[in-house]
Amino acid sequence: MGKPSGLVAAISRSGNPAEVLRGPLIYVVILLLATVVFWRESVVGLVAVAQMAAGDGMADIVGRRWGAQKWSFSSTKSYAGSSAFALSGFVVSVALIAWFNFWGLVPALTAGVACKVALISILCAAVELVPWGDDNIFVPMVASALASWLL
């Protein structure tokens, strides 16, 4: 088949068109479901989307660029990527909660909520390290479950 199209090359890691039907498609479907189920008035949805979009997204970018030191149990996951996941997931979750609160859609962000969001972000970063399954499914599921329980 030759060289992959620009779109396939942009959204797949290997350049294989079949890969687009796995990770990126699942990613979009999960984001769509989170938006439909939790739209506008749920901190749970905001946290789940932030963990997946910002946390997982930045883990990939930072891990590829600065991820020389890998976890001992995973040759593809790095300390830098995991740290970027937790930090980005936290920052974007807090920013979304504050923004949606500004518009009166969710309760105010308190220090207690921020601490719980930090814990959720760290635990989601740990879930992303699991070598089996699809993190595009498990990260938002765990984020939703933890946010439902803690927030």
Automatic annotation (TrEMBL):
Q: Which InterPro entries match?
A: Phytol/farnesol_kinase
Per UniProt, the enzyme's principal EC class comes to transferase
For this protein, the parts annotated as crossing the membrane are: 20-39, 84-102, 108-130
**Bilayer disposition of the protein:** Multi-pass membrane protein
- Swiss-Prot/TrEMBL keywords: Chloroplast, Kinase, Membrane, Plastid, Transferase, Transit peptide, Transmembrane, Transmembrane helix
The places in or outside the cell where this protein is found are:
Membrane; Plastid, Chloroplast
E.C. numbers: 2.7.1.182
Reaction catalysed by this enzyme: phytol + CTP = phytyl phosphate + CDP + H(+)
For molecular function, the Gene Ontology terms on record are: phytol kinase activity
One cellular component GO annotation, for this chain's record? chloroplast
What pathway, per the record? Cofactor biosynthesis; tocopherol biosynthesis
Please report which protein family the annotation says this sequence is part of.
Belongs to the polyprenol kinase family.
User: What's the protein here called?
Assistant: phytol kinase
What is the source species?
Answer: Nannochloropsis salina CCMP1776
